[in-house]
Amino acid sequence: xxxxxxxxxxxxxxxxxxxxxxxxxxxxxxxxxxxxxxxxxxxxxxxxxxxxxxxxxxxxxxxxxxxxxxxxxxxxxxxxxxxxxxxxxxxxx
Length: 93
Fold this sequence. Notes:
- The protein is an all-beta fold.
- It has one domain (2-91).
- The chain has strands at 2-8, 17-20, 30-38, 41-46, 53-60, 64-74, 80-91.
- A four-stranded antiparallel β-sheet has the order 2-5-6-7, with no helix packed on it. The chain has a three-stranded antiparallel β-sheet with strand order 1-3-4, with no helix packed on it.
- The protein starts with a strand and ends with a strand.
- The relative contact order is 0.23.
């Protein structure tokens, strides 16, 4: 199984804006986390400031957030994953 999540500290998200992805837990940046789980083994890949990554918010309303994303992420051990042409369309709670 694979999961992708995005998080930010102190970033105001706006519709129609493309954001460069930054490092994990850095204030003022959005970052991506890519997890893989296979046969009880998990790996975590994180976006970084110095590698490619972006997320575009195409729709932002009180009930919906939608957009696209592409990024590279790495593990502490140097493993790398490339995620391309991702999209999301979520209901906000």
